[in-house]
Design goal:
294 residues; 3 domains; mainly beta; disordered N terminus; 21 strands; seven-stranded mixed beta sheet; elongated; Jelly Rolls
Length: 294
């Protein structure tokens, strides 16, 4: 009987001796990335990378290890973290009590710093409110957070707004009559001071029209007469003034060359100053007026 048992166990022992299992596991695993083998081992280890985190549990009931990858949101922000939600808000209720629904998913609550692009279908001439996805009615104010829009919201003209925790404020906007950057409207302010561009005097002066609206140069007797050329023809409606201070040697003759349409050369007087005013139509600078012997 003992001899029969020994003969039965001998093939199993020989098989284990010829193919021993790898240490730490009951089998070997070959890992490939993109079809290329990385290696064959008895253990597969997951190492978290930048923004990616793995969590694994031993599923004894399923006779397997379950691993679930996830994002590290401190490194990889979600869409909602960045945007809070899709932010286009189109109000079509025909009222200054603006309402809208966001296109991606419903907004559940307002949070300070949220921004939205409000496109109203009715102009707000006084005070107005907004209610996004029924999250609540909130008053809209100018950028100072205190004054009513009073014309800054115009039907069909989208305007950025942001929530400061109490009210929605227009971003960089004032009343429509004084909004900066709106070329179709007036600008109302206490003072507007143009930049002064000091130009080095030479026989050929290149005037950079983007350096300011007022350009000044002082003649040099060693240089003599000069020609002023504008770098570009300017923007339609742009104004420009040139101040020419004559040295005490003699009055210099100034010619207006490239991109200018002047009434002729400017003859200076020694020790006197002349000013000349131009306006652009986008194709050239046209002379408006000149004053001599100041």
């Amino acid at each position: 009987m003992r001899i029969q048992l020994l003969l039965l166990c001998l093939p199993i022992a020989l098989a284990h001796a010829q193919n021993p299992p790898p240490a730490g596991g009951s089998g070997s695993l070959t890992v490939q990335v993109g079809g290329a083998a990385v290696g064959t081992r008895g253990t597969l280890n997951f190492v978290s990378g930048n923004g990616i985190v793995e969590a694994c549990v031993d599923n004894s009931a399923g006779n397997r290890i379950d691993c679930t990858p996830s994002y590290n949101y401190a490194v990889v922000p979600t869409h909602d973290t960045i945007h809070g939600n899709e932010n286009y808000c189109y109000s079509s209720n025909g009222s200054i009590a603006y309402t809208c629904r966001l296109p991606s998913r419903a907004l559940t609550a307002y949070r300070a710093g949220m921004t939205f692009l409000l496109n109203p279908d009715v102009s707000c001439q006084g005070s107005c409110t907004i209610n996004i996805d029924d999250a609540g009615i909130v008053i809209i104010k100018k950028s100072d957070g205190a004054a009513d829009p009073a014309g800054a919201l115009i039907a069909g003209q989208p305007q950025w707004i942001f929530y400061d925790g109490k009210v929605f404020r227009l971003i960089a906007a004032e009343a429509a009559a004084s909004r900066s950057g709106d070329r179709e409207r007036d600008f109302i302010g206490r003072r507007f001071i143009s930049s002064m561009d000091p130009m080095t005097y030479s026989a050929a002066i290149s005037l950079e029209v983007t350096a300011g609206d007022v350009h000044k140069t002082t003649t040099s007797n060693a240089v003599g007469d000069a020609t002023i050329n504008a770098a570009t023809a300017g923007l339609p409606g742009q104004h420009m003034w040139i101040i020419i201070v004559n040295d005490l040697g003699r009055g210099k003759t100034i010619t207006f060359g490239t991109n200018f349409k002047s009434s002729g050369t400017l003859a200076g007087t020694a020790g006197k100053t002349a000013t000349i005013h131009f306006i652009s139509d986008g194709t050239a600078w046209y002379e408006v007026a000149r004053t001599l012997n100041l």
